[in-house]
Structure formats: C-alpha cells, structure tokens
From TrEMBL:
Keyword Transmembrane helix: yes
Protein name: Uncharacterized protein
GO cellular component term of the entry, any: endoplasmic reticulum membrane
Main location, first listed in the record: membrane
Family listed: Belongs to the fatty acid desaturase type 1 family.
Domain of life: Eukaryota
Membrane topology of this protein: Multi-pass membrane protein
C-alpha cells in the first residue's frame, strides 16, 4: 500500500515511502482517493511539522496574575493567537435561518394542500436553475476551472447562481477555495471531522475567526478578478438579488395564474430558499453523507445502503478538484450537472473540459512507487502525456 501525506495549503497528497506494491482495482481514481482519506484519519492524532501545535493549558493562578497585571504587562502574543481562533456566533444569520426553517414548514403544508400546479412547476424550475448555477457555475466553472465557458453561458450561469441567494460568486468561490486549501484541518470552516450537522448548518451560524479571515485573504482570486461577469455581479449583487431572487419569483404566481399571497410568500419564498440553501450547503458537507469512512467497505455495512450510495468519489474530488465529472452529491460521470456541461460542450459554448482518465492515475501511482516523489508531481507529469480524444465529453465511461 502507499502511505500518503496531506498538506493543508493545497489539495494534494505526498508520498512518504513505498510498500509492497500498488493494489490494483477497477478504478484507480477511487483507489487514490481511498489512500488519501486513510492518511487523513491517521494524521488527526499526529500534527504535521508545519501545523500550529495546541498551546498547553495555562495554570489558573498564572491566568489570574495576567488579569491583575494587564495594565503594566503586555499579554502573551501566543495566547492572543489562541483567542483569535475562536468563532463567534453570527446572530443575524442565526435569526434568518431559524425563520427560514420554521416558515418553510408552513410552505410545505401549503404545497401539499393549497397551491396551484403552476406554482409547483415554478418551485421545481427555480430550485433546479439555482442548483445548476451553484454546481456547474460557481463550483465547477469558477471555483475549480473544470472547463471554459463562452460569455453567454457565463452570464446565464451567473443569473442562475443569483437565484440561489447564497452571496456573490466571488465571495462564495473564495470561501470554497479556502475550504479546499485547509480541508480536514482545524482551519477548515466546514470541518467534516465534526460531523454532518456542524458542516451543514452550525458552521453557517458562525463567523470566521480572525485567524481564518487572515488565511482566507491569502487565497488567489486573480482569475475571478479578471472575469467581467463575476465582477459585474459582485458590484451590483444586492440589486440582482432583490430583482431575481425576490421580486420576479414572488410576483409570478400572483400576476400570471392568480395564486394566493400565502402561496407566493411561503412556497416560492421560504420553502424555495430552504431547498436551495441546503442544496448549496451540501457541496461542502457531501463528504459526510456520501463519503466512505476509512476502513469501510463499499457498499457499507449499514442500513444507509438502501438510501444512499456511498463511495470514495467525494474524497477523490479533494484529491483532483478540477475533474469536471466529479459530482457534488457523491457521483462521478453522471447526474444532471455533468450532462448539462456536456450539452453546452456539444453546442460549442463550453470548451477545454478537464478530466483525468483511470490510466493516467494508474501511471501516476506507479511512478510514485518507483521514484518516491509526490503524487501531485507524478500526476502533473502523467497529465502531460494524457491525450484525450476529440469530443471525449460525448463518450461515456
């Protein structure tokens, strides 16, 4: 087996020493993700040299002395750094999310008993467009550069992403890249080690700590700063939000098919926002739902196998985030988002679709065992030799 090491500043793994060989599997991509995630579980008990160590507890008497002499003595800088890592509650977000979740329950009741079918179709359409704007737009196109898009496609995806109501593309991408750069560490705002409830909801109710804010500012955003569509949306985001997210959707049921105000507000308003929010949040917390834990088999030995198809594909995404085939919800090379990208590629509006073939992964792993270099370096060399056929996006498998 290969022993892999994860560096928090970049989503790649590094080779430490060879074992007896590389285990062959039907899918080398998933195998590489398996090795990557196995090391993550080992690493939690053993901090790396470049990670800040936890400060030992200070004796209570010493703390008391520090408080008594704080006027004349300067506080310990190390202690200030520790305090700056604490995340405070974001009370406006707490209140908004509580109201959205509670009022969406009434919207669900109206959806089942008291709305017109056109309102149901509008709800499904808006949720579908907003989710596509997040998955194929904000995530795969702008966060990971999985493909290139014509300006007309970028404008459409920008409008779709605005329907999600989760902030501008620029802000969301910066937060998501920060998540990838510090994945599975204490600096990760969506730390999956703390469980699904934390990654999905609790972290959304907290501000980033000053330490995290400082790290976040170091994320390279130069590519988005040169994207006119992204910067246009960032400049007038709240105007677009009011028009596209609030006014037009809420007005449609009242104006065009004479539905009730309650249906417009609670179904198209609160229930839609509830659905879209959780679909967008799952992009960061999906690994808690669909990702296998170290040592688990596929399918896992649990009752969830009847509901959820778990695999190592979520871990693969953190190993090779730019593969356009990586689904947000535990899939690979399937789903509406991948099909959506292929359709626009066939029409010539999406180009340079990036992916990694299983043979390329296999060559990279073999090179790691032979040369004792990092998997990232070997992957880059293998990708130079990879020759994808023309219109490979139309070929399945």
């Amino acid at each position: 087996m290969l022993h892999l090491r994860y560096y928090p500043n970049a989503p790649y793994v590094k080779y430490i020493k060879p074992g007896v060989g590389i285990m062959a599997s039907n899918d080398d991509n998933a195998s590489a993700a398996h090795e990557f995630y196995n090391y993550l579980s080992f690493r939690r008990a053993m901090p790396l040299a470049n990670e800040p160590h936890t400060r030992p507890p200070v004796h209570s008497a010493l703390q008391k002395k520090t408080r008594m002499t704080e006027v004349t003595e300067k506080a310990d800088p190390a202690q200030e750094i520790e305090l700056s890592k604490k995340r405070e509650a974001n009370w406006p977000a707490v209140l908004i999310l509580i109201h959205v979740h509670l009022l969406s329950l009434y919207g669900l009741w109206l959806l089942l008993y008291d709305v017109k079918w056109f309102t149901v179709f509008l709800l499904i359409s808006l949720c579908f467009m907003a989710t596509l704007g997040m998955t194929t737009g904000a995530h795969r196109l702008w966060a990971h550069r999985s493909y290139k898009a014509h300006i007309s496609l970028r404008i459409m995806l920008m409008l779709f992403q605005t329907l999600a109501g989760v902030g501008s593309i620029y802000d969301w991408v910066q937060q998501h890249r920060f998540h990838h750069a510090h994945f599975a560490t204490s600096n990760d705002p969506y730390d999956n080690n703390k469980g699904f409830l934390y990654a999905q909801i609790i972290t959304r109710m907290r501000k980033l700590s000053p330490h995290q804010e400082k790290l976040k500012q170091s994320i390279d955003m130069s590519d988005l700063e040169n994207d006119s569509v992204v910067m246009f949306q960032k400049k007038i985001y709240w105007l677009l939000y009011i028009i596209l997210f609030l006014l037009l959707p809420l007005n449609a049921p009242l104006e065009y098919w004479d539905d009730s105000v309650l249906s417009a507000v609670f179904v198209i308003g609160f229930l839609r926002y509830f659905i879209v929010l959780h679909a967008a949040w799952l992009i960061e917390s999906a690994i808690c739902v669909w990702g296998l834990k170290p040592g688990q088999k596929s399918p896992p030995d649990s009752n969830s196998v009847f509901i959820i198809s778990m695999s190592f594909w979520p871990q693969y995404h953190y190993l090779i985030p730019y593969d356009y085939k990586s689904g947000e919800y535990g899939t690979y090379d399937s789903g509406c988002s991948s099909a959506f990208i292929r359709v626009w590629a066939a029409l010539g509006l999406a180009t340079d679709l990036r992916t990694v073939e299983s043979k390329t992964i296999q060559r990279a792993l073999a090179n790691v065992a032979k040369t004792k270099r990092s998997l990232q370096t070997c992957l880059e060399e293998a990708l130079k030799e990879q020759c994808l056929p023309d219109q490979h996006y139309l070929r399945r498998g």
